[in-house]
Amino acid sequence: MSSTDALRVVLAGGGTAGHVEPALALADALRRLDADTKITALGTARGLETRLVPARGYELRLIPPVPLPRRLTPGLLVVPARAASAVRAAGRVLAEVRADVLVGFGGYVAFPAYLAARRRGIPIVVHEANARPGLANRVGARLTPYVGVANEGIAWPHARVVGVPLRPVVATLDRAALRPAARAELGLAPELPTLLVFGGSQGARSLNAAATAAAPALAAAGVQVLHVTGPANAASVSAALPPPVAGGPAYVVVPYLDRMELAYAVADLALCRAGALTCAELTAVGLPAVYVPLPVGNGEQRLNAAAVVAAGGGLEVADAALAAAWVATHVLPLVTDSERLGRMSAAAARFGRRDGDVALAAMVRTAAAGAKPIADPSHSTAAGGDIGRWGRLIR
């Protein structure tokens, strides 16, 4: 990249909001540093990126998906064949936009993009938001010295703790200042204790069921609820609720909320999954939460929530244990205890980080310029050897 050229960045992070939103937050940060920066996002036709990326004004290029097993299983044997066309497609995009740097966020979009960038000698930056990395980023992290992580427990060579890139409206959120306007906009009373229920971008069946079953107990205690159900679940959640009581606290159901900062502002407590983005956003804004880790996958959600729970900023309950009785016994007393919530909010805020977008943007610009990455003293900086065939990368 010459000193007069605009930086050309390709982002590979599709599928869920947990991949797409940090990628878009990075794109925004890069554009704030230099408005001429060229941003291209890679995705697939079945991911949330098809809606979120164009809505934020960035170019989206589609490649074939490469589903990756979460563990080292015989399913890995078919990955190279499936990846071949995706690697070629990603390579074409990198060539057409004349990419200076590729930034991957994990998942089935990042995997072929890492291999395509490696073939073309394009600098790679890897960002890992979860406490337990998936296969794609385990591959990518062996291909580059530029690795940003959200958790100190990931002992990769060259890894530097940068946090999770967050949207500025979340990273700079003043919950107390926004609360009156946000509650009015969402149809909530200005003073009542408020529980936020959400299960990620697609919702969570167990959270939906437990919250609706506990609705009578919550209403009797004067607790209002904002329930973000997931796009496919709003009708079933609404049908499961008891008829509203005149003058009683509101139970507001929305299928999806683009402006989650409003939800964070209205809430005194969240009942939610423990995805990396969720944990990062809630701790950044100091919102206490009851985390219900997704019981499938490689256990990363339980690990994501462990540190903030240990710091006193949240509680954790297993998915199998979550039920209306548990909500009534544990959530209801907490959401109505303002002093305890205040202590938990302060603990969550101390644990959170608001500058992940800026820190990762600096790493991206360093990688594109070909400069040596700054070592993080909390991680090993020993250089890894040159990796040839992809199969060696998953050991």
Describe what you observe in this structure.
- The relative contact order is 0.14.
- The strands form two sheets. The protein has a seven-stranded parallel β-sheet, with helices on both faces. A six-stranded parallel β-sheet has the order 10-9-8-11-12-13, sandwiched between helices.
- It has 395 residues and is α/β, with parallel strands linked by helices.
- It folds into two domains: 200 residues, Rossmann fold (3-Layer(aba) Sandwich); 183 residues, Glycogen Phosphorylase B (Rossmann fold, 3-Layer(aba) Sandwich).
- It contains 16 helices and 13 strands.
- The two termini are 34 Å apart.
- The longest helix has 19 residues.
Share of residues in helices: 40-55%
CATH architecture of the largest domain: 3-Layer(aba) Sandwich
What characteristic shape results from the CA principal axes? elongated
What is the mean pLDDT? 89
Strand order of the largest sheet: 3-2-1-4-5-6-7
User: Which value, in Å, is the CA radius of gyration?
Assistant: 21 Å
Q: N- to C-terminal separation? A: 34 Å
> Sheet bearing the most strands, described?
7 strands, parallel
> CATH superfamily name of the largest domain?
Glycogen Phosphorylase B
